[in-house]
Design a protein that fits this description.
mainly alpha; 271 residues
Length: 271
């Protein structure tokens, strides 16, 4: 636990700096996390090769460059090109048995790269305050679920996937995240950064995203169980790999993005 806390304290200033500066700095940070996470997933599925490593770097870089230049309208272009590229490579090598590689390769790109890239889109379209909602929802929920589960957890949530998680912990995590989102909104309201209506919207966003974050955590656990690995990596001391730390963020981010888009359409404004 001590090493886990130290790693978080060391990583948080870097994360904060990237989010505050935004722009190409944040895009580069997202790209770096996405490349490492993608390679961790490919390693877990046993499809990691030099070609896959090179492909990950090239296509992730292309994804973020296109999004920086053209915005969200280009977000789905590179994932489709990845699938086309991998299918062409399979056909060119006459290896029909290797259909597993393009399936895993394209899935990983959508699951990790496309979904994480929405962090950049949220920062550019709704500002730095909106980005923090994602981390409040995901990591606030994780913290609340841990302590609630320790205190009153009785019923197992998904014993096969994650034996330590409980129903009570899951509920406590979402309540904690929602409360933190509301407090965060109140602080910004008192600083005249948002209107009163958005205090309630912030709480709602963190509630929905906290639920998505927990499914993201369980989905990653399901992959690890299926592949027989304890962690996706060991790059972050006390946490494991990038995917072990960002699995909840991967689900919470696109959900937050969709909610913000819907709010903009309905409200005609921005957060």
């Amino acid at each position: 636990m001590f090493i886990r806390i130290i790693s978080s304290l060391l990583g948080l200033p870097i994360l904060a700096a990237l989010i505050i500066f935004g722009g190409t700095w944040l895009a580069a940070g997202v790209a770096a996390v996405a490349v490492v996470g993608l390679l961790e997933l490919y390693q877990a599925f046993g499809v990691i090769t030099i070609r896959m490593r090179v492909m990950a770097v090239i296509f992730v870089s292309a994804q973020m460059i296109l999004i920086v230049i053209f915005g969200g309208t280009m977000a789905f272009v590179v994932p489709m090109l990845v699938l086309i590229f991998l299918m062409i490579m399979m056909v060119a090598q006459h290896r029909t048995r290797d259909i597993f590689i393009p399936i895993v390769g394209s899935f990983g790109f959508v699951y990790i790269v496309l979904m994480l890239s929405t962090i950049y889109l949220i920062r550019e379209n709704w500002g730095v305050y909106a980005v923090w909602l994602i981390f409040i929802a995901a990591w606030g929920c994780d913290t609340g679920a841990y302590f609630t589960g320790k205190a009153i957890g009785r019923r197992k949530l998904a014993p096969v996937l994650s034996p330590k998680k409980t129903v009570e912990g899951a509920i406590g995590g979402s309540i904690t995240a929602t409360a933190l989102g509301a407090v965060y909104g109140v602080i910004l309201y008192n600083l005249d950064e948002i209107s009163l209506n958005f205090v309630y919207i912030y709480a709602l966003i963190t509630l929905i995203c906290s639920i998505a974050a927990q499914f993201g955590d369980l989905a990653a656990s399901a992959i690890k169980r299926q592949r027989g690995v304890k962690d996706f990596g060991n790059i972050i001391p006390g946490h494991g790999g990038v995917l072990d730390r960002f699995d909840s963020i991967i689900f919470a981010t696109p959900v937050a993005y969709v909610i913000l888009v819907v709010i903009d359409v309905l409200n005609g404004g921005t957060l």
